[in-house]
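User: As part of a screening pipeline, I want to sanity-check one entry by hand. Below is the sequence and the SMILES for fe (ii) ion. Please return the complex as structure tokens so I can compare it with the automated output.
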Amino acid sequence: MSINESYPPAFRRVISGGDPLATAEVEPAVLVRDEDIKIPVIDLERLDKEILREACKEWGIFRLENHGVPLALTSRLQEISGSLLSLPFENKRELFAAVNSPLTYFWGTPALNPSGDALKRGAQASNVHMLEGFNVPLSKLPTFSTSCDDGDAHEPKLESFRVLIEEYGRHITRIAVSLFEAIAQTLSLQLSGNRRSEYLSESTGLIRVYRYPGSSDGAAGEALGMEVHTDSSVISILKEDETGGLEVMKGEDWFCVKPVANTLIVNLGDMMQAISDDEYKSVTHRVKKKNMETERHSVCYFVFPKRDYVIKSSNYKPFTYSEFEAQVQADVQSSGTKIGLPRFRPNSPLFLSSCREI
Ligand SMILES: O=C(O)CCC(=O)C(=O)O
Ligand SMILES: [Fe+2]
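Assistant: Here is the complex for your manual check:
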């Protein structure tokens, strides 16, 4: 099988140079300092609250060292997800359907509905985004049985994937909880009673395993990996391979974040920004592959507040994560892009009328 058969047909057309209009629109020119930026480094074994506060306030992103995720686990997870993602496109489409699972396969957009299927994006949306992946809601993994009676050839790989991602999920959830508790202390948030799990609800945790295709002749040169966005999460934790391509915005400039072996990248999302009353920021970022020939693989974890917990802050109308998510999805479907937190500013008209008044 040639590698192209594993890519969605829309990607193959772009890679072969036959359908340049199908790629994401080239973004308006912004100054990109094509240099690597040193983002703050946090050592999870020796958490320094001052460095953490500074990182959350000035950057919204940091590198995590001594996180305790075994190197062998991440390597095996990347290996098995890479091998599942390199299956022929049609097999990937059928992969999870065959075992009737809550996991989904998506491509062409990172905007998914709550069931993990790609959202139909509005007319102004950039067309195909050159990425694909698996969406894994962690709380549903225990009900995901990889055994099926039709002798499916991929079953052993799927079972290894389930076991590895479950173990990775336990590590990454532990890290998210420790970091959130430390960040809450830097904000003097009271976390007594159920408060911590309302702000950061472990059962909402999900993992996306991504593949950004490569093209030997560089035909997909201008195709973006992932468009400019902020994450909707409280915290996101990224494990990227050595290919590079993650870029963050600081001030008015874009900078490249260089991959560093055996570290994780933590970024704060919109919910953390709201919880902290804009003290901390949801970092604007994107993925732009530099090395066009090489595929890029990454694994990203997201965690959210309890869905019906009302987030109150002085800069936004009170809202629940469910309401926020519904608004984002409505905006993506109608205009092609997420508006996010600005929708919840006191004077902003809400598209959906369901949000409560102050
Ligand atoms: O793949 C990456 O490096 C980043 C992914 C990302 O930003 C996201 O999924 O929100
Ligand atoms: Fe992101």
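Points to compare against the pipeline: Residues 229, 231, 236, 285 surround fe (ii) ion (ligand 2) (CB under 6 Å). Residues 98 and 202 are 28 Å apart (CA to CA).
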